[in-house]
Write a structure and sequence with these properties.
Largest interface: A-B, 92 and 92 residues
Largest sheet of chain A: 7 strands, antiparallel
Helix content of chain A: 25-40%
Organism (chains A, B): Caenorhabditis brenneri (Nematode worm)
GO molecular function, one term (chains A, B): NAD+ kinase activity
Oligomer: homodimer
Number of helices of chain A: 12
Family (chains A, B): Belongs to the NAD kinase family.
EC number (chains A, B): 2.7.1.23
Strand content of chain A: 15-25%
Distance between the termini of chain A: 12 Å
Protein name (chains A, B): NAD(+) kinase
Radius of gyration of chain A: 24 Å
Amino acid sequence: MRIRIKPQHVEQFNQHVRNAYLCSTQPSVAPKTLVVPQPKPVIVDKGESSRYWVDPTNHMRLPRSLAAALYQTQNTQSKRSIGNMEKPSFQPKKVLILSKLTRYEFEKKVNKGCDDDQLASILRKRGSDYNRLLSKHKIHHSYLNTLQRELENAGIESRLVRRFGYTQEAVDWADAVFSAGGDGTFLMASSKVRTKHKPVIGINTDPQGSEGYMCLMRKLPEENLSGALKKLFSGNFEWLYRQRIRITVTGDDGISDAIELHDQQLNRDPATTRWTDNPRSPARENDVEECMSLSPPVKKRMISESDAKEIAMIPIEKETVELPVLALNEVFVGESLSSRVSYYEIGLNDEQMLKQKSSGITICTGTGSTSWHFNINKLTEQCVQDLMKIVAEHCNLPQIPHTDKNAVSEICTKFNQQLIFDPDRKQLAFSVRDPIFNATFPPTDPRGFADKIRIKSRGYDAHLVIDGGISYRFNDGSEAVMEVRDEDTLRTVVFR
Amino acid sequence: MRIRIKPQHVEQFNQHVRNAYLCSTQPSVAPKTLVVPQPKPVIVDKGESSRYWVDPTNHMRLPRSLAAALYQTQNTQSKRSIGNMEKPSFQPKKVLILSKLTRYEFEKKVNKGCDDDQLASILRKRGSDYNRLLSKHKIHHSYLNTLQRELENAGIESRLVRRFGYTQEAVDWADAVFSAGGDGTFLMASSKVRTKHKPVIGINTDPQGSEGYMCLMRKLPEENLSGALKKLFSGNFEWLYRQRIRITVTGDDGISDAIELHDQQLNRDPATTRWTDNPRSPARENDVEECMSLSPPVKKRMISESDAKEIAMIPIEKETVELPVLALNEVFVGESLSSRVSYYEIGLNDEQMLKQKSSGITICTGTGSTSWHFNINKLTEQCVQDLMKIVAEHCNLPQIPHTDKNAVSEICTKFNQQLIFDPDRKQLAFSVRDPIFNATFPPTDPRGFADKIRIKSRGYDAHLVIDGGISYRFNDGSEAVMEVRDEDTLRTVVFR
């Protein structure tokens, strides 16, 4: 939603937004109508401030053309059609809470035997800030305590687990799942929910560090959490449906076990990862004992070297397996090594397969279209300005306003916004990174939609990565089919 | 150079180009003026054919907007200023030839004991074509024989080595170096030449498979090789200077040994890699015995785990090392795993360091600007068309020709062409892949030039990759400074 404000009122309005956001109502008193404005782009008629958006949580400025993805909230969230109207009601008996491990907790574990002074020193050597870690740890637990308390007050039984306790059994026990963490924790939580009848709700316990794309109200202040939960329990919300990608793989030698890329990626501050706080790196087995794959193992069939020659003469039967994890954001297919070129063939719907050479390909849902897909395809104002200048000169149209920063910003914003689509849309968007076209690899549109996408690997050491966290080997000889199915829909909530 | 041809003459002209290119003059008779037209874009006034360029070697069509990089020959090759005029003369006494290993040779080696029928069968199972491999093997050796014969006829002593015999000693022995292979072999050849007085000349022995950006006449037909070499020996050429990037790294625990990513990448057909035929994958030590790192080891200092706590309290002295390899195309800095986000800080010239989060960054020379850098930054016609449409609607300028495919193609071409710059330009171009901007990581221009670039790693498992082939560990705590120095210039030849 855009609001037109006169220039002289901008500062006042921003102040209002900040105040409302950092709402100082008492947590125990639920306001009758909870008004917690989302951080929204503020558009002004003229001036530099119109091109920027200010984040109330930390007052950082961000060009509007890039905020397009971050704050494209209401427009893209679909309402189900009238024929599918379901009066919202959230009254579970049993709720499972998946909590992330805070970085503070992780560092204490990894540096066993160090007292807090020593830990502070070790962290400082790495350029990390102990006090900040501790502060974030406390904030996380403050949210968590409030959540648990409100569930108890509502007479709902709850269990708290961290990632290694987040088993299918625990999920099956629950009627609903809450994640307490950031977007990464939400992804992890939803990865084990395979039915569209079990809601998953994300609570962003790190609004400073995580964008909270998939969390309730994105960056809900802690003092407003109680009120929001009461709203939820009283049915004052709407269901939000997010489509997911089902992947079926056919391979020569079976499908490898998943490689778990999750980790708290604790070498960095803030503790965030690619576009969410989806932790990502091979779990350090030595350091953290309870390292367990979240994905059930997939049956493998080994071929011994001595049989290779004989087998070379016999057609090998390929095995087809549906991967046990659905993708909520995207599937990435490409070489594991970032500097290696990826080779594969791609077929959209039931069309012919085409050869491609690139830095890999992402296939995303509407949910994922604000994430990696967005970052690959967005244009910067620099690029848009350059192009507008070329168009102006080539077409002899000096009235094209390439020197007008506001116009460039608005045009860039419109372009970037069109990259984003509805989480409930039952289609896949593909995006080829750094496509290499030459006489051998004829060009194709590097971006588009399809109902079904088939990829045949011609890779050396390629993998198929789900939501940036779970990786399957995907080499020459393997094929994957990706599609969206209604029964894989993820149910979550939104406040309108 | 562009030629305006009337539509009715296009086919005739194309035929002429093809004939001249596949010149049928006898190899032993050197034409007085050797006219071997480079594959050039043919621009026509109207019609679909104006947007496409036809490759005479295989008749594949390629949109002009993408051919822009491939065929931007004469315009960007600099002539040194009058004050630096040096009459060309090429009269070495001793020449070293670095030949690639053909894929056929590699497969024979790896599948020891298999006769050709069995080899053919194994390859067929992988979707590879034995006959094609054999044919390319023969073509390669045909070029190689001609080269050796011409050198002998000219009274020049020559030695032939493959990669494992390509030592510094061998290079120092020679007055000049020839590479026989594709662009990857040229990169490998130039990697050991550290003086600007020793010319390196690339002969593209796989014109069908390799683009030959850095090779003599790019895709010189084999029957024209003799003539071209005679031209070279008679001084009828110009020097072409290519700038390179010197990298100096400072790290906490010393610099790791280089990881050799070279390999013949022989699982694919055609045997080409990212943007050149630069082979790339961890050398398979078990399969190919003479596996030797091309890069001299760099001194390492290990810190034991037991000292870690103690050391945490003591400032560690950092070690500064100049890497033993110069980059001719580009340096890539980023996480090793393609699906992991990269964190680092970057400072241009002597400006303040800025934090960034992205899919990594490339820093390239003019030579490299046609390569990975180009593929990252190029726009497709789809993208340009979308943007032109938005501009037309936003600015109410219906005369912007976004539905005119020719106009879109020309504008796209102009944009893409401006990405490419002179190999002799003494500046670095940086390009950030999929930059992630949000409130924590303020936006910066993702593309630009600098004389010097400093990068501080905040990586988990990051590396610094030179020309896609040699990789150095580059983790949190390490810093690299990249710059261009005159003494690192690579001298090669070009025919005008």
